[in-house]
Design brief:
Blueprint lengths: L6 H10 L4 E3 L2 E3 L10 E3 L11 E4 L13 H14 L3 E4 L2 H8 L10 E2 H11 L3 E11 L5 E10 L5 E10 L3 H14 L17 H12 L12
Parallel strand pairs: 4-5, 4-7
Antiparallel strand pairs: 1-2, 2-6, 3-9, 7-8, 8-9
């Protein structure tokens, strides 16, 4: 299942938050407006060198406890690494706190410019991935919402963004989750998996959601292939 693209909203995003700008020592981007459908911000034209190392900040879960999002964090890190688009460098909450005094940074809040510079200096990162979990229902029907943006440290541009919700209570989502599970299930398991296990496991459903949410990164000109 490829999430629907809301063209009018994408146009708004391209006008309102297609780039990051310095304002009194802070990097700021206009928060995206409420949306009626899932969307991807198309990769922007970029003449910079491809990103080879991206710092992945801790997931911002808002009202969701960090412990509950542990499996989601591992799933997103794993799916990004599996795509081999760039080297993923996870940044822990403690590391981020040492840099800016906060353990999480949302994709829609003001970002101090020195945070981006510090990530570049300390990790050699060329990009920073901000990821928010906007919806999380770990019981059936499982649902996960992902909002993310990839910022190019060198240019300050938002190279890619998405805001999607996957609800296994929707038949089409459930079927695509089953297909994903069948495709990547362990063939050596004693019991065959018809894909249904993904609908009762938050960890497995998180892998499906992460794979779908970051699928459009494959076509971005600003990442390494």
């Amino acid at each position: 299942m490829k999430p629907l693209v809301c063209l009018a909203l994408v146009a708004t995003l391209l006008q309102g938050c297609a780039s990051v700008r310095n304002v009194r020592g802070k990097v700021t981007a206009t928060p995206p407006p409420p949306h009626a459908a899932n969307f991807f911000l198309p990769p922007l034209p970029d003449k910079s060198l491809p990103m080879r190392r991206v710092a992945m900040l801790p997931l911002s879960g808002g009202r969701f406890p960090a412990e509950a999002l542990r499996e989601v964090t591992e799933a997103i890190q794993g799916e990004l690494s599996r795509k081999t688009l760039f080297e993923v460098v996870p940044v822990s909450g403690a590391d981020l706190e040492a840099i800016c005094g906060q353990r999480q940074l949302s994709s829609v809040e003001h970002i101090p410019a020195d945070v981006l510079h510090a990530l570049h200096e300390r990790l050699g990162a060329e990009g920073v991935l901000f990821t928010d979990i906007t919806n999380f229902r770990p019981y059936r029907p499982i649902a996960i919402g992902v909002r993310a943006k990839l910022v190019d440290i060198g240019s300050g541009a938002i190279s890619w963004a998405c805001d999607v919700v996957f609800d296994s209570g929707q038949p089409a989502v459930a079927e695509n989750a089953r297909k994903f599970q069948r495709k990547f299930s362990d063939p050596n398991r004693k019991l065959a998996d018809d894909g249904g296990s993904v609908l009762i496991s938050p960890a497995r459903f998180a892998k499906f959601a992460a794979s779908e949410a970051f699928s459009s990164l494959d076509s971005s000109p600003s990442v390494m292939h």
